[in-house]
């Protein structure tokens, strides 16, 4: 086994690493009823939004651009309906990666995807859900907090949080319990602005994340939005900030990993899952 993978698994078992799950982990997730794959990467999500019709190269470059274009044409409600139907209405079932991450019982997990699959795996335990929000009026805060108890979520304030519960942070939103999404360019501009200002991460999480190490799985760093959100969510990380598993990384990805003190492991996230499975076996 790769020595880096062994080190990662050891740190995960000790509860010393925060997984940061990207769109790549959704590859292979299929809806049981229709056998359709879940739209995971930017291009597949754009094509799902347009009914399979490609947009201009400039808009196809990133989902947030395409979403902004269609929001301007069809309204914000169109984007929200599409994402809710896509991630909340197809009967997706959790993949082995979701079940494995949940089984680790880690204190803090960041899920950059908009689906609710990891939430399904957390339904057997009390936990705190943080959902990223954008373009709110009357407040600088860009999150909503929910506590899962007795089979249901209830909205709570920062002063009501049980800080002993595991945290599931969904910065780009989720259809459950209330459809809320960071999707268009305007959403990201607002969210990242307040993230940089300190208003998109709850206070107790800022304390919890000091000197944390992170593990990036299924996450690429070729686009500005992904890099900027990541940079602020891992603020105050340990001097050796963790690992990024990226198969065939670009020079841009090599540069950002070096800048953020992340060890770049040139492997697919599935290799780590296979290594974990072989240890169990």
Q: What would you say about this model in short?
A:
The protein is built from twelve helices and eleven strands. It has 281 residues and is of the alpha/beta class. The strands form two sheets. The protein has a nine-stranded mixed beta sheet with strand order 5-4-3-6-2-1-9-10-11, with helices on both faces. The chain has a two-stranded antiparallel ribbon with strand order 7-8.
Descriptive tags:
281 residues, alpha/beta, 9-stranded mixed β-sheet, two-stranded antiparallel ribbon, 12 helices
Helix/strand layout:
Blueprint lengths: L2 H11 L3 E5 L20 H8 L7 H4 L2 H12 L1 H13 L7 H8 L4 E4 L5 H5 L5 E6 L10 E7 L2 E5 L10 E4 L2 E2 L5 E2 L3 H12 L6 H6 L4 E5 L6 H10 L8 E4 L5 H9 L2 E4 L3 H12 L1
Parallel strand pairs: 1-2, 1-9, 2-6, 3-6, 9-10, 10-11
Antiparallel strand pairs: 3-4, 4-5, 7-8
Protein name: SIR2-like domain-containing protein
């Amino acid at each position: 086994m790769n020595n880096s993978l062994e080190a990662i698994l050891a740190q995960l078992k000790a509860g010393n690493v925060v997984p940061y799950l990207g769109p790549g982990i959704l590859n292979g997730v299929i809806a049981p009823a229709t056998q359709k794959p879940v739209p995971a990467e930017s291009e597949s999500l754009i094509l799902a939004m347009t009914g399979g019709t490609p947009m201009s190269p400039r808009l196809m470059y990133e989902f947030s651009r395409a979403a902004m274009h269609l929001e301007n044409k069809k309204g914000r409600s169109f984007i929200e309906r599409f994402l809710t139907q896509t991630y909340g209405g197809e009967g997706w079932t959790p993949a082995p990666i979701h079940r494995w991450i949940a089984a680790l019982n880690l204190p803090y997990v960041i899920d950059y995807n908009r689906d609710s699959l990891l939430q399904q795996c957390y339904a057997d335990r009390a936990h705190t859900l943080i959902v990223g929000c954008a373009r709110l009026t009357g407040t600088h805060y860009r999150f909503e907090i929910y506590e899962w108890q007795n089979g249901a979520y209830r909205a709570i304030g920062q002063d009501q949080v049980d800080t002993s519960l595991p945290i599931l942070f969904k910065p780009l939103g989720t259809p459950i319990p209330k459809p809320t999404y960071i999707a268009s360019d305007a959403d990201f501009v607002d969210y990242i602005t307040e993230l940089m200002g300190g208003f998109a991460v709850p206070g107790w999480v800022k304390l919890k994340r000091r000197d944390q190490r992170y593990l990036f799985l299924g996450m690429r760093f070729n686009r500005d939005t992904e890099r900027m959100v990541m940079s602020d969510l891992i603020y105050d990380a340990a001097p050796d900030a963790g690992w990024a598993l990226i198969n065939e990384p670009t020079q841009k990805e090599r540069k950002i990993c070096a800048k953020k003190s992340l060890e770049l492991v040139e492997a697919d996230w599935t290799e780590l899952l296979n290594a974990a499975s072989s240890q169990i076996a």
